[in-house]
Design brief:
Elements (H helix, E strand, L loop, with lengths): L11 H14 L4 H21 L25 H13 L5 H17 L3 H6 L5 E2 L4 E4 L8 E4 L2 H13 L2 H4 L12
Antiparallel strand pairs: 1-2, 2-3
């Protein structure tokens, strides 16, 4: 494709020509361009380390910005169906069902990630201020999320149905096993 067979023929211009040819004539997506660039960068780093190349030829090649895609989300009707399915599902005990509906509700109405829900502590949910504090979430940042009215219903239902011994648990959502 590039006609390069020896390291002496390798140059910034040759790599740049290969990458931009792919982008313009082969209609590569940005992700394809970046993938090839990354691999060629690794190859050139290896060549420099072994003494085959004087420097990394990819250092001077400008990369296109990564395309940002909007995250996919569920429609209101899909969210309602999920909550409805969670409500009608058969559970081992009543508390398990209430807890699982509260977990699903916090995912839907607060937009928390599953790992954030799993790490949620009792003190992170403030019913008076109607906020949830997510500690060290994505990018290791803390953030506060308002509790929507629908979410408040599910969280209070969960707290009301939680046996006293589980209320002393450190995490907001406790397991169904004996504590």
């Amino acid at each position: 494709e590039t006609g390069i067979e020896l390291t002496d023929q390798l140059s910034t211009e040759a790599i740049e020509g290969f990458l931009y040819n792919g982008r313009l004539k082969r209609n590569w997506k940005t992700s394809t361009f970046l993938s090839y660039h990354k691999e060629l960068r690794a190859l050139c780093n290896w060549g420099v380390k072994k003494g085959y190349l004087p420097y990394n030829y990819t250092d001077e090649i400008e990369k296109p910005p990564q395309e940002r895609r909007l995250p996919q989300y569920l429609s209101t009707a899909e969210c309602e169906r999920i909550l409805e399915a969670a409500y009608h599902r058969k559970y081992y005990c009543q508390h398990e069902g209430v807890r699982n509906r509260a977990v699903i509700a916090i995912l839907i109405f607060a937009g928390l990630r599953l790992s954030e829900v799993a790490k949620l502590k009792r003190d992170d949910v403030d019913f008076v201020a109607r906020t949830i504090t997510v500690r060290r979430g994505k990018w290791k940042r803390d953030r506060q999320i308002p509790i929507a009215s629908r979410l408040l219903f599910f969280l209070k239902e969960y707290i009301d149905a939680t046996p006293n011994r589980r209320l002393m648990h450190l995490h907001f959502f406790s397991s169904m096993r004996a504590d």
